[in-house]
Amino acid sequence: MFDPIQSSLIINPTALTKLKNDRKEKDEAATRVERRVEHFRCSKGRTTLDVGADGVGIITIINPPVNSLSFDVLYSLKDTCEQALRRDDVKAIVITGAQGKFSGGFDISAFGKIQDKTIQAPKPGFVSFEILGDIVAAANKPFVAAIDGLALGGGLEVAMACHARISTPNAQLGLPELQLGIIPGFGGTQALPRLVGIAKALEMMLTSKPVKGEEALSLGLVDALASSDEVVNTARRWALDILERKRPWVISYYKTDKLEPLGEAREMLKFARAQTRKRAPNLRHPLVCIDVVEEGIVSGARTGLWKVPGVTDLGLKPRSIKKVAILGGGLMGSGIATALVLSNYSVILKEVNDKFLQAGIGRVKANLQSRVKKGQMSQEKFEKTLSLLKGALDYESFRDVDMVIESGSCDAAFRNCSHSEDASQQVIIDLLDVGKKIKKTPVVVGNCTGFAVNRMFFPYTQAALLLVERGTDVYQIDRAITKFGMPMGPFRLCDLVGFGVAIATGGQFVLNFPERTYKSMVIPLMQEDKRAGETTPRLAKLSDKDIVEMIFFPVVNEACRVLAEGIAVKAADLDVSAVMGMGFPPYRGGIMFWADSLGSKYICSRLEEWSNSYGGFFKPCSYLAERAAKGAPLSLTVDPGKSRLVLDEEIGALLFLKSLP
Ligand SMILES: CCCCCCCCCCCCC/C=C/C(=O)SCCNC(=O)CCNC(=O)[C@H](O)C(C)(C)COP(=O)(O)OP(=O)(O)OC[C@H]1O[C@@H](n2cnc3c(N)ncnc32)[C@H](O)[C@@H]1OP(=O)(O)O
């Protein structure tokens, strides 16, 4: 073989020295690579975090040859993501794969080990909820995936949980799980349809065929292309742009613009089922995949991914529910009754006296009539639907009901007819099934006064009343809050639900949380004075920002207590509940997501400042104070051991919330 050193001996001693040094450098580099490959080969898969001078943390998946997502890698990914979110010197985060490959997906070799129990798989939802949903997607720092080579299966699902994706033109992106006999289990059934549309998503999953980076860009699966040398740098800049609001901060699970309207979507899903049955009549998992995609479209991404540990993974099947009784015909009860009769359930609406009962039935009638007026329901259908509703003043007609729903804020428990452990889970499974059928999004929460939404939001009206009593203009408060993005301000809401309800539910919270409720006489006095409208008190100078913070920070504070008491399993559930149960502006990501965008330190300091001036109503709870002291996000998962999803004797409410558009 031609040896440049030997052949140059007679040519030029200086060149000789240079060549020798070059050779030495090459040998050293070759040794380094060898050592690294050797190191990789014997070490378990893992991820690393390197923080650049630009404040961008680069998380690298390392598990040669294709950076497959073994359990070690997934646990390590969770740790490095949490580390990056905690560090003050990290402003934004990029996830990438070593050696020019993003990730070949979940570690296929682990399947066998799971089956023969040589390794213990973490609990369901560990990846799709805890890592990708609640840490990456819900993060208060931007995550951008830098994709080279391939992003397949769980690898692509990790990338889709990020807020943007940069890919090389020839990278392979796909969800090939169905060819392995499983379905995309790390969120892909929800993220892919929202990024590329239902038709393309179904095609990619059912055929297991990947697309190249170039096509992925045209589909909207990735946001930009870059060469292999540039893909990480482009991702860093993109992440910083998102942070500086120069580029959109997109959570793929919440995107809806690519989802076809429900009717069209159902046609596509029907066609996909027919094609699948024709092509693979004996295979069930492709149909399961289509069902899960549909579940998410109808009821929201989280429901599609949804698994409550110890409930939906018991193999319990929902029982047939035909007749439902509702205690209370107020705004909530008549709303649930309307949703039930519209889904062809027979409903008994019980009230304490005939006046309240007629009012409740009247609300249901008005809800149905508004559909007739909008041309969404024929008069004949209206009569037929209304005939499903019966009123009651006692429990006589409850003998043959399949389910009873209590529709108030007070701390209520559904006693189970049987005392087996499964009875509670069974009731939750039944309720989830009914919730899905009436096109709501059920969120499973523990038992407490007001459950999750009313509990979190009781400070909302009370803070507004505190401001009014100190001379802030009622109209300015309502204007500031609607400008923030709520459907209406707290006083308009009071008018709508009626002062009676506001006083009754407010009284429940004063009774149960005396140390931190603000007892205002404004509404009782106005009710006494028969003034249900809006009044114009003395003016006091508060900025809209102050108004928003003085009204929502106590809500965040109460939401922290709901988490600390284990009433809710995770912050993201409270985000979903606030958006769909209270109209919290969805583009702000939910109450806890929004809070984390401001930072626990800031929120705690403001609450302390007001607590010194206005008393315990604003006092920060210990959950909030502890996180503020560490500068930690409020949405960091609470220790599941503390979760109070009570399943023995009592069952928390299932909040039937409006489903996402
Ligand atoms: C913490 C988790 C808890 C959950 C509970 C667990 C229960 C069930 C989990 C459910 C998970 C659902 C969500 C995710 C699912 C998935 O991601 S499934 C996997 C999806 N990925 C694939 O199907 C890719 C399969 N591989 C390929 O298509 C090709 O190998 C390739 C990646 C395109 C590379 O092809 P090529 O360059 O031709 O090289 P090969 O010879 O094919 O492969 C090279 C070596 O790499 C190994 N390898 C490839 N893919 C994987 C993989 N996914 N996992 C592990 N190893 C992989 C391959 O075996 C070769 O290895 P060697 O033989 O040692 O060279």
TrEMBL record:
CDD domains: crotonase-like. It is found in: Peroxisome. It catalyses: a 4-saturated-(3S)-3-hydroxyacyl-CoA = a (3E)-enoyl-CoA + H2O; a (3E)-enoyl-CoA = a 4-saturated (2E)-enoyl-CoA; a (3Z)-enoyl-CoA = a 4-saturated (2E)-enoyl-CoA; (3S)-3-hydroxybutanoyl-CoA = (3R)-3-hydroxybutanoyl-CoA. Residues 323-407 form the 3-hydroxyacyl-CoA dehydrogenase NAD binding domain. The keyword Kinase does not apply. Pathway: Lipid metabolism; fatty acid beta-oxidation. InterPro entries: 3-OHacyl-CoA_DH_CS, 3-OHacyl-CoA_DH_NAD-bd, 3HC_DH_C, 6-PGluconate_DH-like_C_sf, ClpP/crotonase-like_dom_sf, Enoyl-CoA_hyd/isom_CS, Enoyl-CoA_hydra/iso, NAD(P)-bd_dom_sf. PROSITE patterns: 3HCDH, ENOYL_COA_HYDRATASE. Keywords: Fatty acid metabolism, Isomerase, Lipid metabolism, Lyase, Multifunctional enzyme, NAD, Oxidoreductase, Peroxisome. In the central section; belongs to the 3-hydroxyacyl-CoA dehydrogenase family. Belongs to the enoyl-CoA hydratase/isomerase family. PANTHER family: 3-HYDROXYACYL-COA DEHYROGENASE, PEROXISOMAL FATTY ACID BETA-OXIDATION MULTIFUNCTIONAL PROTEIN MFP2. This is 3-hydroxyacyl-CoA dehydrogenase. It comes from Rehmannia glutinosa.
